[in-house]
Design a protein that fits this description.
The protein has 146 residues and is mostly helical. The chain is 63% helix and 4% strand. Strands 1-2 form a two-stranded antiparallel sheet.
Length: 146
């Protein structure tokens, strides 16, 4: 069973996002990008100040992401909005290198229990995937009109 606290959810989501984007670019770039995106979104979601990316590729603790326990007081809906924004912002940041199955890959890597918990807090991967497919189809249609 998934530990449902905000710390665990945020830590795992950010770790998965770094891992997946690291395969599409490189690991160091993925870490720097995620750190920059978190800082960018802090203005909208102040509690993201409690999420830190290790600057070194190999830290002594072995963990790339640390999340302060204060984040557990954040309401589930706000947590969901922040995670949704992180995923979309990273996807946009990666551009074409994100690939067609970026959202699906996140969903599969997180696993059913996390995906289910994420849906409870407002992050619906099925809707994210459909939205991404719609956006890709629209870009293709617009490109063909040229």
């Amino acid at each position: 069973m998934v530990e449902a606290d905000n710390v665990n959810i945020m830590k795992n989501v950010v770790t998965v996002l770094i891992s997946i984007s690291g395969r599409k670019t490189d690991h160091g770039h993925a870490m720097m990008t995620m750190d920059a995106l978190i800082k960018q979104l802090e203005t909208q979601f102040n509690f993201l100040k409690n999420v830190h990316i290790r600057k070194k590729l190999y830290s002594e603790s072995g963990e790339l992401v640390s999340v302060m326990s204060y984040i557990n007081v954040v309401k589930a809906a706000e947590m969901g909005k922040a995670i949704h924004a992180l995923i979309l912002t990273l996807h946009d940041s990666l551009g074409d290198s994100a690939g067609h199955f970026f959202i699906k890959e996140i969903k599969q890597t997180l696993g059913d229990e996390y995906v289910s918990r994420m849906k409870e807090i407002g992050v619906d991967f099925t809707l994210l995937q459909l939205d991404d497919e719609f956006t890709q189809m629209k870009k293709l249609r617009d490109y063909q009109k040229m």
